[in-house]
């Protein structure tokens, strides 16, 4: 009886969008929440980051967590069109492969979405500058998390009823339970950048870019070459988000990061290579972007389980995924919402049942989406698949092109029953 009355407490490790979303969903379920995040302070709009697409269900969930739901629309742009086009550099021509005009995503900058969600939380929920060290589960079903306060160097313990690992694709908490799980390198990396053109919106670069890609502002452009592809869409506050996927050997990465440091020489080489693949308007955008960065693309084999006792994985910790289904952020938001509803339904006294139901709802969906995204990436990069010839946009059939649309991902518009 005592346990039923006491307010349950969750400790969330990781203060990115998955962790912040989880805080919202669990607070809505009546839990106390503390989020531990190693970065010293909340990210600002100038933080290095990139664009992401928010699907209709995630939009509704985010709005339910905001005190002013309209802020989501004010800080994002519509992506009503998913447009796949091909480019032939030799002939200097582009043509449409397929176009979906009922796409209904919204484009956000990572830092903008994070700020919206973070600023809507009660003060003191997120402990910045707290580096996760270890955890232990006691026989009394509580979990003790040990963390280092980076500013003072002190080590402190925080107790809770549930530990939520929202610590990303390189999750150290996951490693405790799955020490042999290895991330799988995709065979390619992504050059990424965001150009802020707010002070020069009538520049030749922007005018030419909008001429070449007339639906910028409402459209997600996928541009396919032979054995490579890129992405282009506009963000709120006059910014252009671009990505170029490049087949290459696995790079040397710094520990605990999938982003590699790039030298000026590497950037110059990238520009020169781009000039042999993409139309001049796109290359000019790349050249004018400050600090482009390089992401190595990884995923993993789908996990069979995502909880052990009172420790549960969510977001990229539970399902490292490549970016080709526009799923990573959307999966994290949905994980958080479903976990919150399961905890609310079952209560602390039935924590195991809540986590069982969470796993049964999310794991099959996440597994299929991880594998679909992997396949989509290999197709668009012209890589070998056991059941088909490498994709070539110059000779692809209409049927093959329609398969490139993002809405083909399994469970594209599915709403879990617990959120109904």
Automatic annotation (TrEMBL):
Residue ranges of domain FAD dependent oxidoreductase in the record: 10-51
Coiled coil ranges: none
Domain 2,6-dihydroxypyridine 3-monooxygenase substrate binding: 185-299
Segments forming domain FAD-binding: 304-368
Xref: Pfam families: DAO, FAD_binding-like, FAD_binding_3
Protein name per Swiss-Prot or TrEMBL: FAD/NAD(P)-binding oxidoreductase family protein
């Amino acid at each position: 009886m005592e346990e039923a009355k006491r307010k349950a407490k969750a400790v969330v490790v990781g203060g990115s969008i998955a962790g912040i979303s989880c805080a919202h969903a669990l607070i809505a379920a009546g839990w106390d929440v503390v989020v531990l995040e190693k970065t010293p302070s909340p990210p600002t709009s100038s933080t290095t980051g990139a664009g992401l697409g928010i699907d209709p269900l995630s939009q509704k969930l985010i709005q339910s967590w905001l005190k002013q739901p309209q802020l989501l629309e004010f800080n994002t742009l519509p992506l009503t069109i998913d447009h796949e086009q091909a480019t032939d550099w030799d002939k200097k021509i582009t043509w449409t492969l397929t176009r979906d005009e009922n796409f209904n995503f919204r484009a956000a900058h990572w830092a903008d979405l994070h700020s919206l969600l973070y600023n809507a939380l009660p003060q003191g929920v997120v402990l910045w500058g707290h580096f996760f060290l270890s955890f232990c589960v006691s026989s009394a079903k509580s979990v003790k998390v040990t963390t280092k306060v980076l500013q003072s160097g002190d080590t402190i313990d925080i107790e809770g009823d549930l530990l939520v690992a929202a610590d990303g694709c390189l999750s150290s908490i996951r490693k405790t339970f799955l020490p042999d799980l290895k991330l799988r390198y995709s065979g390619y990396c992504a050059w990424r950048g965001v150009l802020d053109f707010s002070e020069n919106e009538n520049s030749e670069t922007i005018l030419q870019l909008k001429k070449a890609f007339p639906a910028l502002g409402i459209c997600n452009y996928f541009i396919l070459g032979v054995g490579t592809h890129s992405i282009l869409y506009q963000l709120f506050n006059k910014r252009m988000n671009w990505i170029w996927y490049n087949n290459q050997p696995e790079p040397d990465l710094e520990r605990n990061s999938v982003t590699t440091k790039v030298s000026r020489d590497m950037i110059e080489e990238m520009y020169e290579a781009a000039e042999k693949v993409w139309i001049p308007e796109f290359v000019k955008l790349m050249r004018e972007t400050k600090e482009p960065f390089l992401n190595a693309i990884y995923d993993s084999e789908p996990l069979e389980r995502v909880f052990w006792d009172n420790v549960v994985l969510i977001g990229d910790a539970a399902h490292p995924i490549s970016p080709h289904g526009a799923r990573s952020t959307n999966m994290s938001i949905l994980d958080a919402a479903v976990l919150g509803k399961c905890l609310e339904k079952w209560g602390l006294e039935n924590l195991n049942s809540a986590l069982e139901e969470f796993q049964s709802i999310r794991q099959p969906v996440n597994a299929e989406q991880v594998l679909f995204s992997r396949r989509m990436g290999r197709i668009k990069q012209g890589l070998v698949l056991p059941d088909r010839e490498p994709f070539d946009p110059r000779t692809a059939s209409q049927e093959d092109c329609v398969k490139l649309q993002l809405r083909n991902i399994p469970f594209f518009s599915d709403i879990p029953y617990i959120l109904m």
